[in-house]
Amino acid sequence: MRGAFNSCRSADNLHLIGELVEFIYYIQKDNENGTTMSSADAIINEFSFQEKLSPAQMDAAWAHGWRHFGAYFFRYSVIGHGENVKHVVPLRVRVADFQASRSQRRVWRRNQNLQIQVRDACIDEEKTTLFDRHKTRFSDHVPDSLFSFLGEEPASVPCCAKEICLFHGSHLAAVTFWDIGDVATSGIYAMFEPTESRRSLGIYLILLSIHFSIQYQKKYYYLGYAYRQPSHYDYKKRFHALEYYDWNGAWLPFANASQLQ
User: Are 91 and 236 contacting, i.e. CB atoms less than 8 angstroms apart?
Assistant: First the structure.
C-alpha cells in the first residue's frame, strides 16, 4: 500500500480521543514540491491496520473521517486524477432529528411486504451469490469479493458488526452491513438484487439503518461519503438532519450541495 503514494512520510501518531487509540498513518505530500500542504489545502490520504477497536474507539475514528474494510482503515479527501478528481465528503445523520421526506416515506411503504432480519454479520453462499449479481451494476472499478469489504471475520473484526437482511419470501433481496459504536453506527457495505431496482432498496436500507440506530439509542448514523461534485452517491445528500465533515475536525450541518462548492 505504501508504494501507491508518490511521496509519503511517517507522521506522529494520531490521538483520536486521549489514549483510546493511536493510528500510525501516512500523509500524501504535494507532488510538485515534496512538502506537506497547509491544513486548509491538504490532500488527506491515510491508512492504518487495526484488528480490534472498542466501541468508543470506533466512534472516535468515524468522527475523524475514518472508514474501514475489515482491519484496513482509511480516509482520503480526494479521489481520482487530473480532470477526474473528486472531493470526498463524509456524511452522517443526527438520528434523533431525522425526518423522512415524502419520497422516502413512499420507499418505506413500498417495501413493507419484505421480511427483515437483524443478526451478526457474516458471509455465506447466499450473500456471495447476491454480491455477484449486485456487482453487475458496475462497469468500472468492479469489486472482486465481498471479503474485500468485510474481511474474514465481519462480526467481530475490528468491532461488533450486524447485518440487516431483507427477504422477499425465501429470497434474499438486499443486505446492509453496519458497525455499532458507543454513540453511533456506521454503514460498511450494502447490496441488493438488481431486478428489484424499482423498490429503491439502497434508500430503504439507509432508512432501516437510521431506524435501528434510534432503537439502539445511538446519536449518529454514518452513511459513508459522497462527492462535492455530482455523482451516483448524490442520493445520500437527500437525507434530513445531515452533517458533513470539513476535513479540519468539524462536522457541519448540510443544507444543500451548493455549500460545498
Answer: yes
> Considering only CA atoms, which of 58, 47, 60 is closest in space to residue 15?
60
Q: DSSP assignment of the chain, as one string? A: -GGGSSSEEE---EESSTTS-EE--EEEPPTTTSSPPPTTT---EEEEE-S---HHHHHHHHHTT-EEETTEEEEESEES-GGG-EEEEEEEEEGGG----HHHHHHHHHTTTSEEEEEE----HHHHHHHHHHGGG-SSS----THHHH-S-TTTSSS-EEEEEEEETTEEEEEEEEEE-SSEEEEEEEEE-GGGGGG-HHHHHHHHHHHHHHHTT-SEEEEEEEESS--TTGGGGG-SSEEEE-SSS-EEE---GGGG-
At residue 257, the pLDDT reads 54
- pTM for the complete prediction? 0.83
Cite the DSSP H helix spans in the chain: 55-63, 102-110, 125-134, 147-150, 201-215
Residues 53, 58: Cα–Cα separation, whole Å: 6
pLDDT tens digit string along 230-243? 888 899 999 999 99
Please check the confidence at residue 12 and state whether its pLDDT lies above 50: no
Residues in Cβ contact with 188 at an 8 Å cutoff, skipping those fewer than 6 apart: 68, 69, 149, 150, 154, 161, 176, 177, 178, 179
Contacting residues for 82 by C-beta, under 8 A, at least 6 apart: none
